[in-house]
Design goal:
Layout (H helix, E strand, L loop, with lengths): L9 E12 L2 H8 L8 H14 L1 H4 L8 E10 L3 E12 L4 H23 L10 E12 L6
Antiparallel strand pairs: 1-3, 1-4, 2-3
Amino acid sequence: MIDISEKEIVSREATAKGKIRIKSSTASLIINKGIKKGDVMEVARISGIMAAKNTPEIIPHCHQIPLDSVDPHIEIHKDSVEVQCTVKAHYKTGVEMEALSCVSAMLLTIWDMVKYLEKDETGNYPNTAIETVKVVEKRKGRNGTQ
């Protein structure tokens, strides 16, 4: 790991987002809570929070950061689900990896919960895709300044 012992503890915040393309019929079932495995949105939120909190356990060079807040959001569209997560902490290093972990886990959880609906006759997923996972904003400093 990188030595951060000399860095100052300051406010840190990062927001990441991503999208999963799904069938419109699957999106409708998510909205109407008709998925066999349960409430996709709630399970995905919990999965995202757990992933953010456990980021150092799956990404070897990440520091253990005492997180102040993990705030996941989900938006369902006609043929996709967009997720976003904002993570906050007061520490010596940024929280963008925690935000990316949250988003990634949410998207993977959604895929897992709806995959039985997304498969074609050969068992493949021709239209299902996770796209555009990225950090959209990162802030640090006493007033959110870089």
